[in-house]
Predict the 3D structure of the following.
Amino acid sequence: MQLHRSAFSALFALSFFFAGCGEEEPDPSKEADLDETSEGEETEEGLGGEETEEETDKEATECAAGSWDDDSDPTTACVTRTACVAGEYVKVEGDAKTDRSCAACEEGSFSPEENAATCTVFSTCANGVLAEGSEVADVVCKPEIEQLVTAGDRHSCALLDTGAVHCWGSNFYGQLGDGSENDSTTPVAVYWP
C-alpha cells in the first residue's frame, strides 16, 4: 500500500507540473513592463498607453495617389478614389482615410471633364442660343451678325464681326458656299479656297 500511495503522490505532483503544458509560452518581446506607481499600483506600459513605433507602422497604410484606405487595415489594398464624371464636380476631395465625394452640376451650369473642381455657368448669348447646353457642354451662341451681305431667292449670307461669312437657306446649287449641296436652317461658314 505504501508503494501505491507513493505512485499516487508522484502522479499528483506531475499533474500540477504539467498543468501549464499546451498553453502558449509568453513572448518576452510582447511582455509589458510592470512599474510600481507612487500608490503601489502596477501599470502596464505598451498596453494601451503610448504606441510603440512598430505599432504605429502597422496601423499606417500608405496609399498611392488616387487611392485611399477604406478599412484602416494595413493588410488590405487601398481603394481607387471615386471619379466625378463630366456633369459633376468634386464636392469634397477626401484624404488618406476618406473617399472623394461628387455632386451634380446645378441647372444652368456644366462640367465637361472628369473630377472638375467646379461647374461653369452657361455662357450668355447676346443674339440668342443656337444649341442648348447640357450638364457636360456649354450653350452654342448664335453668331453676331454685323451687316447683311446678300439675300438670294431662298438663301441669305451675313458678314460677321470676325470677318467670316456665314450663309443659310436653300443650297441646291451650292450657293451657301460650304462645299455641299445640303440646305441649312442655321448659319454655316462659307469655305474660302
Observations:
- The mean pLDDT is 77.
- The chain has two helices and 14 strands.
- The first helix runs from residue 2 to 17.
